[in-house]
Each structure stands twice: as C-alpha cells, then as structure tokens.
Amino acid sequence: MNLSPSLSPPRYVSLLGYGGLLPFIGLVLLILTSLEYRTFWAVALVNYGAVILSFIGVLHWGFAMSVQNMSDELRRDRLIWSVMPALVAWLSTLLPVPVGCLLLIIGFVVHFWQDRQLVRVVSLQAWYLPMRLRLTAVACVCLLTGAVAVVIHS
Q: Sign (positive/negative) of CA torsion 153, 100, 33, 38?
C-alpha cells in the first residue's frame, strides 16, 4: 500500500538520505588508508552507525504518531519498536569495534525488516522502502568492511 506511485523521492529527501551515507563511506576509506589512526576512525564509524540507527528507529515513532487509520495495537508496536534501535546502537558503542559493527548491521537489517512489515499494513510513499533498502545496504557494507579491516589489521 502506497500513497504515491512515484519511486523517486523528492530531491531534498534524496540529498539528505544519500548524503547521510557520506560519513559511512568516508570513515571506511579512512580505516582502510590511515594506519596510524585506524582505531580512531573505526570507533568513529561505530559511533556514527549508532547515531544513524537511533535516528531511523525514530521513523517508526513518527509513523505511529502521524499515520491515520493505524490500529491501536500496531501503533503501540511501532512505539515500542522505535526505541529498540537506540538501545542496540548504544550497546554497539560499548563493544569492541568489530562486534559493534556486526551488532549495528543486525540492527539495520532488522529495522529494514520492520519497515517491510509496516509497509504491508499502512500507506507510505512508494519510494520509501526502495530508498531504505539502498541506504541500509550501503551502511551495512561500510560497517562490514570496517569490521573486517579492523580484524585483519589488529
């Protein structure tokens, strides 16, 4: 169910969404090329991933507050789910970098699965899910690359 037949988000949404990937990409490049500061950049990658996972969790809070014709049970479930990514994100910052990266990947994938479940029962923009898939995929590839680089070089 979608409100808009367009698979292309508004330009500003694309700029904000895809622009949010630049730190992921930049930090991974720094991890791969900066021997002296690899640990610093790796911690920065986990911290940025945690911020972004927390941010996307809030999307479901917003949906619960604004989507019309949502059942009380679904609204409650969205509110409960919306705080889970922040808890996972916080935990990821307390773990060794490779484990933190893997926990964030799990968080991003599970959150995308939650997005898919939500789109099946409420009307959202047609571009939302495809864009979330692309953003999730790039973030996860960057986190996995960072984790592997840290393991290989430690």
A: negative
